[in-house]
Structures
1.
Amino acid sequence: RRKWNRMVGVLKELEEGCSTSITRLRQVVDAMAVEMHAGLASEGGSKLKMLLTFIDNLPHGNEKGTYYALHLGGTNFRVLRVQLGGKGSGILGHEVERQPIPPYLMTSTSEDLFDFIAEALNQFIEREGSGNDLPPKERRQLGFTFSFPVRQTSANSGCLVKWTKGFSIKDLVGKDVTTCLEESMAKIGLDMRVATLVNDTVGTLALGHFHDEDTVAAVIIGTGTNACYVERTDAIIKSQGLLTNSGGVVVNMEWGNFWSSHLPKTSYDNDLDAESPNPFDQGFEKMISGMYLGDIVRRVLLRMAQESDIFGDLPSSLSVPFILRTPLMAAMHEDDSPDLREVARILNDTLQISDVPLKVRRVVVRVCDVVTRRAARLAAAGIVGILKKIGRDGSGGISSGRMKSGIESSSTKMRRTVVAIEGGLYLSYTMFREHLSEAMTEILGEEVAQNVILRVSEDGSGLGAALLAASHSSTV
Ligand code: ADP
């Protein structure tokens, strides 16, 4: 009984530590908007890098022809071919091939990595036969999605700032990513032009905008998390004099590194951070994204097991980092069987904890909910932070974010605003999505929330890059 109470104590403390009251969320919204300002004001002015992408026109739906895309970023590597029909006909068809990145390549040399990618691309093209409608001899145009922080030097070149998500190839940091890819392609005689180098969020934004021109921002919540949006060039103090035809430019926020003292951080977060390969880095990402949620839950369960006897003798599995992957955590959270059969199965199969009583299984579900709810609500606050920065949160002020028309005057009527969203966590974890959407309405209020649409932009990171390759090829 006393031990059970201790476990309850741990749960209570977790719930309090993860509290995301509306007041707290509003503080996070404001902090996000403030940090965005700071990151745009000067280089290194904020933990938000606010990287300029040089993308100033997004696809509108008139693009035509066959284009290619490569996506390197998370656990998988993708090659795509997209057929665009021109005005009104949209995407006629697309093929995608995915393959896992062999883990040794994630920490090898940049030459090894890019040779592997170029070869995969080459094989994809060899297999296409007459599968494209390119005129003979026409050079293939490639959109390259590289989902790591890059300091762009143009729309199709840029240097890697740092690795994230478990990659660590030291010799690539500071180097031009496009040059590396082109060198590897040249070695095997693959004739392709890298038309655009983009972050995955920018690809997602491009696909979103292709389908719906009210799309002003994009968010990805998968293994990691990041966001980008359209900013007015005159609001970017750190690169004064930047001129674009549209008056706007896409900014890659690298929001995974956002930090604010208002974020509800617990001892579990501190421990996870301290034991990670990148302490004090990617703080927001570590509270939100798929790479980490399961491990936060594991840490809570470990503490409960240490403080009480809910799992019998201390199960050694609970000390193994990342043993509980987020998809399994989600499966436990979403177990709707009355006796929580799935929870029992996962505890048994993955953590080798058997015969867990129903009331303890309920506690496990509760822990999953607390951790996911916090993540989803913080992500929602981040999104509203972006909307606030561009005057689309319904609070009045100058609105912006639309490329075609550039600067707009303030208006009291809230404009329809679309945020493109993708990533495995968001797409596959229903409870996460529900908590996020509920928090959006809570922060914005019903009326404003009706004008803010989160639109899934599936495969956007790859497809969008091909679309950008299209819109950036017609102008050269
Ligand atoms: P990546 O971010 O690696 O490029 P994805 O956007 O597909 O790829 O996201 C994959 C991540 O999404 C996984 O690492 C996992 O954390 C999360 N995820 C995938 N499926 C689920 C699921 N069913 N429930 C919860 N999280 C999931």
2.
Amino acid sequence: MSRYSWQRFSSFYRFNPSPRTFQKRDLASRSETLNEVMPAGSLKTYRKKRNLQHTPEPKGDGKKAGGKKPIFVIQKHAARQLHYDFRLQVRRALKSWAVPKGPSLNPSDKRMAAEVEDHPLGYAKFEGVIPKGEYGAGTVMVWDKGTYRNVTKKDNKKVPITKALKRGHVAVWLNGKKIKGGYALSRIAKGKKPRWLLVKMKDEKADARRKPTKSETKSALTGRTMQKIEKEEE
Ligand code: MN
């Protein structure tokens, strides 16, 4: 390459970062596989993956401080594949996992939970329809919500939630409308796409007969069904 053309080439890329950006956006709007190339742990990733002009999802710039108790939310998300997004508040973000089958009340069920990017705290109140062509397109319902307590212990000592997440062993006590009791999250695969298992702990809230994902089909926020949300929000 001659010096002249190299200069043209490099200045083009310096002043036109768009080709790469568009490629990323394009990929983001079509699939959730972007988790493979971007780290999960920051709201930057959340914003990068979405075109926030085109989706009703929160922009993640809310300044509102939360209450004293940290919150959790489980959102039913009819994307290409129906799943339940399990989110725990850690400071001003929501640590998030996509759980294809959703939570179980049976301690012998191991529910796969794919760690996804942190979501802004305001996302906990998001219920609506992500438009076709956008990242995660489909209907989102606030299936359950409430507060949680970090009950992670090691050698009989309390482990702070951030440390527990880092170590890959988290125990929480959920106090939701549909889901209550202890749940353990254990990381089974590290790397670009961390995988965890979500398992009901053996306590008085365990109930192998109740199948809340089947029997409870209405929003904990608005009482609406998925169909109603779809109708009203599109
Ligand atoms: Mn989702």
3.
Amino acid sequence: MASITIRNLDETTKQALRERAAHNGHSMEEEARLLLGQAELASEPIEVATSPTPANLSSTNFDASLDGKRILLIISGGIAAYKSLDLIRRLRERGAEVRVIMTEAAQAFITPLSVGALTGDTVFTELLDRNTEHDVGHIRLSREADLIVIAPATANLMAKMAGGLANDLASTTLLATNKPVLIAPAMNPKMWNHPATRRNHRTLLSDGIGFIGPNAGEMAESGEAGFGRMAEPMEIVGAIQAMIGEIEGPKPLSGMRAIVTSGPTHEPIDPVRYIANRSSGKQGHAIAGALAKAGAEVILISGPVNISDPKGCEIIKVQTAREMQKMVETALPADIGVFVAAVADWRTVKSADEKLKKKDGKGPSSLKLTENPDILKGIGHHKLRPKLVVGFAAETEQIEKYGKAKLKRKNADWIVANDVSPETGVMGGDDNSVKLISKEGVETWPKLTKQQVAERLVERMVAFFDVETIEI
Ligand code: C5P
């Protein structure tokens, strides 16, 4: 790819580009390329891709209390480690309890003694420490926290996390945790922009890890500047407050149980071939995650997908429609059932035990197919039918008509109908344009990301159960 040179950018525009690039985890050149590409494609306004960074610093109240909040701070090696001392002080001023793990490299920059003096607690450094393993250990360290913060986070620690490595106390604790994690990276700009770090950053973002920074500026190394400076302690405090606020946000569906199906199913033809479709699972997984965030207990029954599991859900992985049906029925009773999976309509009557052979020159084998069970229809008419049953209707034509027919036939409360003709890019893509069909009528939603569709749908569910409660 040819490189691009943009001349005569004024300082303000340059700075804005720099900030956008850092926010999206791109180099300035990548960001400029993206903007140019979007400008060419879009007649609509350009949208800044937002990462799941928790910090909305402009709306953060820095004085908000962190009273009794348990922060596990992991300090890895880097000159920015000295700023972590200030971070500890500021967190404690706001009432947080701070426990610290230091990597070996971190101890070359600051000492456990000075850290311990600020936290008033033991500083943990060893994975296999006879004294602490009996008593605290990495599992307890990872669980007895409301939030884990890594500041500074080196490229090495990010790489270990992205690869799932666990060879010291910090990385083992991070692999063992079920708590939210916030990373404040600090490294040389060349390391931050290296393709390997870009890849790891993307992986961690898609694993649901929060990021604050890095900021642009001068590096400790003389003559080096760019993105790589650790965010300032107060910025990290702001991000922590925003993330804690999110964890403790309203849970309107708490006490409710939801079953969600997602992804395609694979119906075997022989040991190596199967019938499938292009469903990515993105919409179903987003709905499961949004339900969990709203406090519901979520059982996600997913066919084979290549995306990461949404947070806070129990995940059951299946291959075929019949396995999916069995798992859905086992998961009953539930208050909510959302059937997003693109279940294969047919399977072979019997899958071959050995790989089917080509019949040289005699044309292809024919497959004898039989219909798969309709899971949604079965649940819509089940004696343990959830109070709210939602189906999806992926159509390539006459969306509304087929959606309405499905609502009736499957005894669903809502059908979310969408156009999956190839030109829409919905199948496997990140966006969706849907119609919400219910007995009350049809609503056409604007084009939204699958994440936004999930959030809107969950808002509707909250409203549905609010009304139900009032009627009782
Ligand atoms: O009949 P159709 O496949 O178009 O219906 C789509 C809806 O029905 C989706 O909600 C899908 O999850 C569900 N479905 C199902 N079991 C099937 C086929 C579809 O649950 N065998």
4.
Amino acid sequence: MFIRIPSSLEILKRIGAIGGKRGIRIYLVGGPVRDIILGKTSIDLDLVSETPAQQVASILADELKGKVTFFPEFLTARIEWEEGTIDVATARREYYPVPAALPEVIPATMREDLKRRDFTINAMALSLHPDNFGELFDPFGGYEDLKEGVIRFLHPKSFVDDPTRILRGLRFSARFGFRFEETTERHIKKDKDGLLLISGERRRKEVRLLLREGLPAIRLLEKYELLPLLGFSSLHCINPPEDAQKLFSLSDPWFFYFILLTWEKEISLLERLYCLRKEEREEIIKTRKIVELEDEKEIVLSMRGLSPAALATLYAKGVTLSLDFFKKIDTLKVETSGGEIVQKGFQGREIGRILEELFYLRFKGIVRTKEDEERWIERLKKG
Ligand code: ATP
């Protein structure tokens, strides 16, 4: 079967032709093939060839005037060129020395390369060679599953080999509204404890991508009883408002949902499970504290420096002032510097207090310009 490739993806033809001239067959594989069939026109360029990636990437980089980096231990290469990034891999097999660990890779055929993938819908390749440009290589029935809206793993040991595939499956199910095939679904329930074995960095990466999909993804985590395994509270406990993501313009809502889902949990647990970054840890602690505050000024001053995700969390927790704060955020800048306040005759702790007061007055709309600030300081001086 041939797939129609939109003309906006002219680059694919170019890549195929560059390979073709040297007798090399290059394929587009995985997610981007799925996305083209689903009608998307913006895709990742993930390429595979049975010819070593190093050779393929060098040839492509030469012709496209790009810069190439090799990752020999993974048999992959990355080309950076004027229009973006191209990932090239040698067709490879994977071997799991221990379940849930990272696999070792060995060169292989295209078929074997597809066989190591997570789901049938992600296990297709498109030939880019001029002889058969656009021909679909689909050994596991991914096309039909895609049309039917079904997520099906490739073999029953799949989730034992790599438990993160469970989270990946949920991600695609949430994103496309697809259902799990029966056996695959049974194995989610059977093999889910494997999620306890994966490293913090892998858990972090997959959970982050999953929470990006928003509430539908969290509902699936609840449905498959995965929330406790990830250190999350149940959905009815967190009860996130549907509109928060929009109100706070969160293009990636992961951290918003993450703070909510872990609200009741010890920070040390989150550090262990998710390798929290220092800034994230601090933001979570600060957000939790603000919810306990009562004084408006104290709340406003504490919200300084918080990310939109943390402000959205406060909103979800009933601190509705955070929405007002978010909307005004661009106007909330005190223009008078500490030095200027010193020149006006103030010193020590007074300076910080004046800056805070000015910030709060900006928030209240009482002070709007630098002249307003100066007038207010003058008045303060006169007592
Ligand atoms: P997205 O659209 O969210 O980027 P994607 O399918 O492109 O999703 P990637 O993480 O970029 O996902 O992975 C690219 C491809 O690599 C997948 O489509 C799949 O074929 C394969 N893959 C990725 N992770 C795994 C995994 N853990 N196990 C098996 N195959 C995987």
